[in-house]
């Protein structure tokens, strides 16, 4: 009998207790009126006390969005979304930055504790002035500064002072709009234009918060930056917007984590991430996406429709995307690099795991415009249960991209015979001095390897976890260390119950 | 489904030739084209091959598909059921009776068919049925004159334990437009071994769909192409594995010169039942000059877990080190490039059993690589 049993009956239920982030925080929140119209957009803009041009920008996006059709080319299926049946803004009451620990609602404290962010750090996270230094001293390097986004608002950003000393701006995008409007105005929408696609346009109209990072010329950001996205309120969508700019010769590593409570309804998450890298700058962007994937029958779960794009504007700039995608009922996400500057580099490392009834259509785009641009794509997909997974990618070499190089490897692993794994790469070459290589494989876990691992005393689940980790190693080693450990555990949890 | 379009005069002429009412599939086809037009770049399967644009200004009127065979068809018969895809459906609607060839045990060499459209547009359906246990060879040559449009559907039925070697030569059709859509259904234990050689046209597409029953059956799809100034060739393959233990091998290699555009789209679809499928697909392309373009989409759609499927795609230029080595041996750069490119393109043609044909095809490749003589 094969080690991996081949029937769905053996695929154990995706028990909800395996999703340890599925709790809800009981906290008084305020909402925008349900539904979406110009008033909703005005409401959000007013809440944020935004300048007039920003409101106009949003309204323009909203009007364009009304003319657009939802895309249907991805290999995912879901019932029509009623965009009027959701809240577009939800925030804890009095969501201002807290002056002292006493002001912080107990519920929020507990939430971050439960999410595995250490208490000391959580104190800092909740914006208690003065706590940053003690926490910083208590933790060994490397330090991680965190921006916590709770539903529609950023509730706290840590290590701001320390970052300021280095000249790094790290704050929520709402704050940045107040404090650095000129930077926002210059860069917002410059990588993902307002009407780029249906979900990005919706985001432009109603985005409520997110993170803003500016690393000035020649600065190597002294610590990892991180944003922790949490969806809490029922019936809300989360629309965050992240903008990261690395000026000449700057370096920044940025981490992103996401979780949501377990609910029977589907919640929409439509984010936009824009990265700008100038001459010799480098941005490393890592994501562990663990939104609630829905239960074993496909009830509930987050629709994760995200537009992420990097513009390598400068010469020899570099952007590296690393993602571990284990959550969400549906994922629609293609972190991309526009390699505009000569000698610029784009990288995409991805692990996507789908189980239960999850659907994931994810991949990347590498657009080579400049000379001697290089890109590397390593995508590992693991489909189990009744899930369906697609790698969809584009590598495009434009006529002027002399000496451009691309290497792509996509490997898929199927666990069980009720899932699907698909590869849809688009490759376009218009330059005779470019080189592109693409390899893809689909296979199952080798019985021989499983047998060997079990001979050595591992039980079946541990053996599968070991082999899957080996399969993903190329990507895992690209993650910052703190994340790599978490990601490995997450892989094991996501696949639990997928073998008999 | 793409959005409705405003028809161009060529499409209007096409529709005028179809019945305009009733529930007949021909009338439905007319309504379909009436709404969506001919396939264009916003239709996923035609993303890089914009047939609609290539024909938008076509003045091709009534014409004829001329089929000269090494023998006459065994019968001409109305098309029994409408093909599923738009272009072969159009070929069936406007091409009159299908020409049906039956290949039995008694054969005098390969079945050879020359398919040509000299002027205007020509549509047609060719059916080739190979009887159980028979080994056969089918050779087709396609040519379209400047300004003409040929749209041909080829239906191939292979019985149990048959073997068909299919050799397709698509002659350089400078200003002609050609669409050949082939549907091949394999019986158990059948072997389908196809090699194409193409030189493109204003727009040419060789599309091959194969239904693979698995167990014991084998599908080989190979192809080579050389595309000069203003030539476009699209080779699209779609293999569906329906049963377990099937084997598929694909190897396509091509070169695009200045102003040439090559497209390869390959899809391997493995149904849930098709466990232990072993499928490999490879496409390698060389861009030889400025303004050359090659676009490729090697796709896997897999629903069975115990399979080994792989695809590879590589695009690039002549290997600089190999070039250097050959120049060290006294060759001029032009000679060295030609030798390297020829040997690169020879691989998919290597398996041809007929030495004369292989020599002739390699001569054609050589000729196309040196458009100036």
Relevant terms:
heterodimer, A: about 500 residues, alpha/beta, ten-stranded mixed β-sheet, 12 helices, 24 strands, disordered N terminus, B: about 375 residues, nine-stranded mixed β-sheet, 18 strands, globular
Lay out the secondary structure.
The complex is a heterodimer of chains A (500) and B (373).
Chain A (H helix, E strand, L loop, with lengths): L28 E3 L6 H10 L4 H15 L23 E3 L13 H9 L4 H7 L5 H8 L5 E7 L2 E5 L2 H7 L2 E4 H7 L1 H7 L10 H9 L4 E5 L8 E7 L10 E6 L4 E9 L6 E4 L2 E6 L4 E8 L11 E12 L5 E8 L4 E4 L2 E4 L5 E10 L4 E4 L2 E4 L5 E11 L3 E10 L7 E11 L4 E10 L5 E10 L2 H9 L4 H17 L4 H15 L5
Parallel strand pairs in A: 3-7, 6-8, 7-9, 8-11, 9-12, 10-13, 11-13, 12-14, 13-15, 13-16, 14-17, 15-18, 16-19, 17-20, 18-21, 19-21, 20-22, 21-23, 22-24
Antiparallel strand pairs in A: 1-2, 3-4, 5-6
Helix pairs in contact in A: 1-2, 2-9, 4-5, 7-8, 10-11, 11-12
Chain B lengths: L8 H8 L8 H12 L14 H5 L9 E5 L5 E3 L8 H9 L3 E6 L7 E7 L3 E10 L4 E10 L4 E10 L4 E8 L2 E14 L4 E8 L2 E12 L5 E10 L4 E10 L5 E10 L4 E10 L7 E10 L5 E10 L5 E9 L3 H9 L4 H14 L8 H15 L4
Parallel strand pairs in B: 3-5, 4-6, 5-7, 6-8, 7-9, 8-10, 9-11, 10-12, 11-13, 12-14, 13-15, 14-16, 15-17, 16-18
Antiparallel strand pairs in B: 1-4, 2-3
Helix pairs in contact in B: 1-2, 5-6, 6-7
In short:
The complex is a heterodimer of chains A (500) and B (373). Chain A is of the alpha/beta class.
Explain what you see.
The complex is a heterodimer of chains A (500) and B (373). Chain A has helices at residues 38-47, 52-66, 106-114, 119-125, 131-138, 160-166, 173-179, 181-187, 198-206, 447-455, 460-476, 481-495; strands at residues 29-31, 90-92, 144-150, 153-157, 169-172, 211-215, 224-230, 241-246, 251-259, 266-269, 272-277, 282-289, 301-312, 318-325, 330-333, 336-339, 345-354, 359-362, 365-368, 374-384, 388-397, 405-415, 420-429, 435-444. Chain A is α/β, with parallel strands linked by helices and 500 residues long. Chain A has one domain (24-445). The longest helix of chain A has 17 residues, at 460-476. Chain B is of the alpha/beta class and 373 residues long. Chain B has a domain at 63-318. In chain B, 19% of the residues lie in helices and 43% in strands. Chain B is built from seven helices and 18 strands. Chain B has helices at 9-16, 25-36, 51-55, 86-94, 320-328, 333-346, 355-369; strands at 65-69, 75-77, 98-103, 111-117, 121-130, 135-144, 149-158, 163-170, 173-186, 191-198, 201-212, 218-227, 232-241, 247-256, 261-270, 278-287, 293-302, 308-316. Chain B has a nine-stranded mixed β-sheet, with helices on one face. Chain B has a nine-stranded mixed β-sheet with strand order 2-3-5-7-9-11-13-15-17. In chain B, helix 1 packs antiparallel against helix 2 (25-36), helix 5 (320-328) packs across helix 6 (333-346) and helix 6 (333-346) packs across helix 7.
